[in-house]
Amino acid sequence: MNFRRLSGAFILLFSLNNFAQNGLFKHNEQFTHQDTLRGSITPERAWWDLTYYHLNVTVKPEQKFISGKNTVQYKVLEPHNVLQIDLQEPLNITKVTQDGKTLNVTRTGNAHFITLKQQQRVGDINSIDVYYEGHPKEAVKAPWDGGFSWKKDKNGNDFVATSCQGLGASVWWPCKDHMYDEVDSMDISVTTPKGLMDVSNGRLTNTKKLNDGSTIYTWSVKNPINNYGVNVNLGDYAHFSEVYQGEKGPLDMNYYVLKYNLDKAKKQFKDAPKMMKAFEHWFGPYPFYEDGFKLVEVPYLGMEHQSSVTYGNNFENGYLGRDLSGTGWGLKFDFIIIHEAGHEWFANNITDIDIADMWIHESFTAYSENLFLDYYYGKQASAEYVIGTRKAIQNDRPIIGVYNVNHEGSGDMYYKGANMLHTLRQLIEDDEKWRQILRGMNETFYHQTVNTQQIEDYLSKETGIDLTAFFNQYLRDIRIPTLEYKFENNQLQYRYINIVNDFDMPIQVTINEKSQWLYPTANWKTLATTAKTLEVDPDFYIDVKPL
């Protein structure tokens, strides 16, 4: 639950209005009926609210086959009798029951429409059991093109993991596969072959050995969780742990790695409590104390699965040993530990309603990388790092995607988004106020799904600045605001070009070795000066064009 329910019509209208105003960038993609069924709050989704899942799945690595059932518990909001459950081909739903009665299921691509027999009364808590099986999509390049990763470790043991952001959780389990409605709590029971352990979200609550040598591991999640944050990870794991004394008390931090990597992990994972200390400082308490925190080794780079963050960064600093900023600062920390754990606050605590607003996840989390540096190495180090990442910005299309069709925006949501937030920090000037704004976000939207407008409104209110044009410029347009200037007749003449309507962001400049603020707009302004040089503070993400 814990969501603010918006009609699909409202979200679509909001999207069209924002793209229409100011001549902002227009998308030309073509979308299908399947895109709408996947990405919108259909009538068959809107009338019921998720309350609980029990996902029970058997994983057979040798056959690359899974089977099981998902118990879907829900609260009736409106009296309807057709319910949408999503499961992607080539998996099949074999049966759906309610109160022991088999229900009729019709399939439209990946959307399954289940006709319920019993009357659905408003306020009732009901459940269905969805049975399924098949060979799930194999990940091509996890986690970006995800699904199941069927790998082997160095000893020839099966090493298996799931990843499904973008594709959606329905690529491997039947669910209500839309971001707007997070399940309140969940149990995950995974049957593994002999010799393999499963690690999933939440806390391990039961282990049951079966006669054939397989084992059922049951994990319990007490907090709301988004669908793509659910995962299963099978391996020949070793385990170690520690207790972190956090803002809300003792926090269990558990680590699962392949046995032969145990010594490496004990050294490298020292970044985990350092991460927790820095991010609780900047963002507030870790949002999932009840479920603990885990790092789990997987056969791909990593992913932000809630309370079960996956790790595959080769136990080295940087991004697979590289510094994405080119400044040297990116080698001061393990990128996957810091970035993916940052998502616990931005993605898992504060979750976008529609994937078109995925910048809420990625911009703040990319920005968290330099806040980690800020905490341990100072403000200058953090600034150099985030400015260094600008070379990765493409400005190919807007950061915000298209609503209601499961369409995410440009990959610029990472480092253009981070630089946007770094720029916003300069407008506030008071670093403690900025810290309290970030902490306040995680308190205000605690365990909620949100849309861009809510985040924009919150930041405008808390900063005391109307940020409408600011966000239109950086989220909905591909142009970088450019300061055009010239010195003439003992005057500095300056203005902005390449901007949306009403963009008037102040900037700090140095003129004659003196720092001061300028207040450019689309119209020429003048400043009396005998100076001939101007330098713009590089903390502001703009271009500069001397004439």
List keywords for this structure.
alpha+beta, Immunoglobulin-like, 8-stranded mixed beta sheet, 5-stranded mixed beta sheet, globular
Report on the biggest sheet.
8 strands, mixed
Q: Share of helix among residues?
A: 10-25%
* Basic shape: globular
- Straight-line distance between termini: 56 Å
Mean pLDDT: 94
Low-confidence residue ranges: 1-23
Please, could you describe this protein's structure?
With 547 residues, the protein is an alpha+beta fold. Among the domains are: 45-235, tricorn interacting facor f3 domain (Immunoglobulin-like); 482-546, Immunoglobulin-like (Sandwich), CATH 2.60.40. It is built from twelve helices and 29 strands. The strands form seven sheets. It has an eight-stranded mixed β-sheet with strand order 5-4-8-2-1-11-14-13. Strands 16-17-18-20-19 form a five-stranded mixed β-sheet, covered by helices on one side. The protein has a four-stranded antiparallel β-sheet with strand order 9-10-15-12, with no helix packed on it. Helix 5 (271-283) runs parallel beside helix 6 (335-342), helix 5 crosses helix 7 (359-377) and helix 6 (335-342) crosses helix 7 (359-377). The chain is globular, with a radius of gyration of 25 Å. The N and C termini lie far apart (56 Å). The relative contact order is 0.10. Mean pLDDT is 94; it is low at 1-23.
